[in-house]
Amino acid sequence: MGNMSNIYITTPIYYVNDKPHVGHAYTSIASDVLARFYRLKNYEVFFLTGTDEHGQKIQQATKNNNLNTQEFVDNMSLNFQNLTKILNLSNNDFIRTSSQRHINAVRSFWEKLNNNGQVYLDKYSGWYSIRDEAFYNEEEIVDGHAPTGAPVEWVEESSYFFKLSDWEEKLLKFYEDNPTFIQPKSRYNEVVSFVKQGLKDLSISRTSFDWGVKVPGDESHVVYVWIDALTNYLTALGYPDNDSKSLKDFWPANFHFVGKDILRFHAVYWPALLMAAGMETPKKIIAHGWWTVEKEKMSKSLGNVVNPQDIINKYGLDQFRYFLLREVPFGNDGDFSEDALISRINSELANNFGNLVNRVFSMTKKNFDGVIPEQQELKEEEQNLINICDENLSEYMICFKSVEFSKAIDSIIGIVSMTNKYIDNTKPWTLAKEGKIDDLKRVLRVSLEVIRLVSILFYPIIPSSSTKILKALNLSIDEEANCFAGPGSIPSLAANNRIGDLDLLFPKIDKNLT
Ligand code: MSP
Q1: Who contacts 129 (Cβ-Cβ below 8 Å, separation ≥6)?
Q2: Which of 127, 199, 213, 288 could bond to 106 as cystine, CB 3.0-4.6 Å?
Q3: What's residue 1's pLDDT?
Q4: Is the pLDDT at 490 greater than 60, yes or no?
């Protein structure tokens, strides 16, 4: 039983036949944002990502490259390890399925299922898609293809099976008892109706190739890559060592982030396998939508694959992170385009948030030599602003709890817009000209307090920009006790501290120059 103050968050592990693209970056960034949020809330967070390196698809990719399979996966995995740096991910571990610790975990998990009478040997005859690494029923095949559009081939081979059909009723009961197990709700309904249609036993080993974990006691079989891959979530916690502290502290996982294409594996097979192994099931599977690029499906053949590094070089990391989470409600599909990215950067980061920080910092520098003014008695206008902050802060918390990133960003942007409006109304430049120093101090002080709060609220999403602003205010996110307190509840900025230098955070982008 995981500890209540601990949170375990995972990304899917990425197939190494491909280089990282915007779709991979999206799942990873979303998971990172939630991990950073829970750390701010003082939870102990274990955030895992990694690479999926076994199976027929990878073996095939290796053959195409004429390389030794292990060397190939070693090289390709590095692209994803680099991605964690490029995206500023705060992962606690990086799991690779070709590592010995993982192979041990998969074999133990298999043995556990086998000892529990959940595995039997038979023959599989049916369709298989190497691209999806998935078995398909006859009824699912449309015009000779998988429902995903992937090519399929007819497979007939000796195979071990998992008694998935035994778990149909228990799964349905489990979904009923845990109505928030799958998010969004539309996906939950989809999974329930899939299971209601009936479950067949699942083929869990292959014999027509050998790049995988050998089945314990029968080396002519390799474990089906999805059983292998799902087990990664246990490996990283020290499984099969049941005394492992991480396993005790962090299992069951709180959040498995997945794309909608791999929901069935996580929401049907995974809980059934865990129940069959006598283990606890994860708390939540969060399925996000897919990105198209300029309204087209992203594909190598179309040559429109978006490389996260290129976008980050051109527009900046925080800008990229912000866009991905802001542009579409989490769970929906989205369309990636540089035009949309530029509009978000210019209207929300540069003209709104960046402008607020700029104008308040520069007025404080100009009028008070950068020294943060002491707290003044507040008037109605400030009280109104503080109320808005408090309301939006509660909204933000609710949105994060339900993993609705774009709505959470709405609530932050709401504070920023109202603060800019407050400044337009109170006209601190006029107060300065008229020598109304106490009024000027009051306005700038409150505005700086709001900037502190907004930077903290933004921290999970745009960590490096937030850190820079807080640093300029002589604050550090790690030392911010009570960091979610609104600007009215505590004067958290030390007066008489001097604001440090801050480069322009979000330069405005001229569409014509890109
Ligand atoms: N290896 C499996 C996952 C095993 S988890 C135990 C896998 N790997 S993948 O590399 O193909 O995909 C990883 C993730 O990237 C999936 O969640 C998938 O949904 C996501 N995306 C891949 N392309 C995508 C888009 N175009 N848009 C959004 N996400 C997409 O599946």
Answers
A1: 136, 146, 148, 150, 151, 152, 153
A2: 213
A3: 59
A4: no
Q: pLDDT digits over 418-438, tens only? A: 999 999 999 999 999 999 999
Q: What number is the average pLDDT over the span 413-420?
A: 98
- The finding on whether 24 has its CB within 6 A of some atom of ligand 1 is yes
DSSP state of 183: E
pTM for the predicted model, two decimal places:
0.96
Is the distance from CB of 182 to CB of 263 less than 8 angstroms? yes
What one-letter code names the amino acid at 510? D
Check which CATH number belongs to the domain holding 438 and give it.
Answer: 1.10.730.10
Do 221 and 360 fall into the same domain?
no
Contact (CB, 8 A) for 66 and 29: no
pLDDT at 113 over 90: yes
**Helical ranges in 41-68 per DSSP H:** 56-65
DSSP state of 213: P
Amino acid residing at 21:
H
Residue type, 440: L
Whether residue 305 has its Cβ less than 6 Å from ligand 1: no
Structural domain harbouring 38: 6-289
- In short, whether 439's Cβ falls inside 6 Å of ligand 1 is no
Last residue of a domain, one of 256, 274, 289: 289
Atom of ligand 1 nearest to the CA of 261: 19
3-state helix, strand, coil in the chain (%, to 5): 50, 15, 35
Closest CA to 225 of 216, 207, 213, 234: 213
